[in-house]
């Protein structure tokens, strides 16, 4: 994988040629085929990308390769304020396997998938078709359920690389080993999703929206995404204002078919839980307790549609003054 930040290398005159040059340069230095190189770019759209710094720096990059990810996690940051990385180990048939990932993403985050770069590696032996199936299935419920600002991007990527060096029996079909791999993969992706949402541009809080009791999965996902994307709900969370009516509005305009007279809404954080709406109507609750709950750095908006057994989760963040400042000054 070769990646640059600061320049998206898209919507310019020779972006494809530059990407091909990046691939050829790395392949030549590592003695591999250019077809085996993944190229990623992130940054300002529509600007020419000078290949010279990449050519000049490739020897140092290749010479600095090692079994660590700190520099890579930091190198792909743009408006990110923190590095995003995680690694876990898991068991496949008595053999310890590992999977880890690094991510970049802070603004212009919205399915599918946003200004997001995610690189996942594993030493688990798994066939290419099953690896693709695992990633595609997981992304539908993780990275495609994250929104910071409702803006999608020209550039995004989630890639997973497996080298099989753990020595486990290769996973070639569904079964217990595949389930174990999927569970470990999901642990990594959910952590990175929360890291991206919590580090949204200008954000002070990470918001998780859990929807329960939906008639089908599509309805649950539609509702969760709509609430996470609601500017008014995001602003209310910034102000620690338990304005649950904004949540119901977001559910209503989501396009999902729901019965408003069955909807329950609660706000949850480390400070406790408080129900603010039952059967589509407000209930008496302590504004002081609600504010205490919403002042936390991680907030959960829990919605029960009471119409079935399906559920979904989406992640986002609050909307603050700093979001406007950051994006108003982005190129300066």
Which terms would index this structure?
332 residues, alpha/beta, L-amino peptidase D-ALA esterase/amidase, Ubiquitin-like (UB roll), 3 domains, six-stranded mixed beta sheet, 35% helix, 25% strand, globular
Quick rundown:
By secondary structure, this protein is of the alpha/beta class. The protein contains ten helices and twelve strands.
Describe this protein's structure:
The chain has 332 residues and is α/β, with parallel strands linked by helices. The chain folds into 3 domains: 1-65, L-amino peptidase D-ALA esterase/amidase, CATH 3.60.70; 69-201, L-amino peptidase D-ALA esterase/amidase, CATH 3.60.70; 206-328, Ubiquitin-like (UB roll). It is 35% helix and 25% strand. The protein is built from 10 helices and 12 strands. The chain has helices at residues 15-30, 52-63, 70-75, 128-139, 176-198, 217-229, 231-238, 244-252, 287-294, 321-328, and strands at 2-7, 39-44, 84-92, 95-104, 116-122, 156-162, 206-214, 264-269, 272-278, 281-282, 298-304, 310-317. Strands 10-9-8-11-7-12 form a 6-stranded mixed sheet. The chain has a 4-stranded mixed sheet with strand order 3-4-5-6. α1 (15-30) packs parallel to α2. The protein is globular.
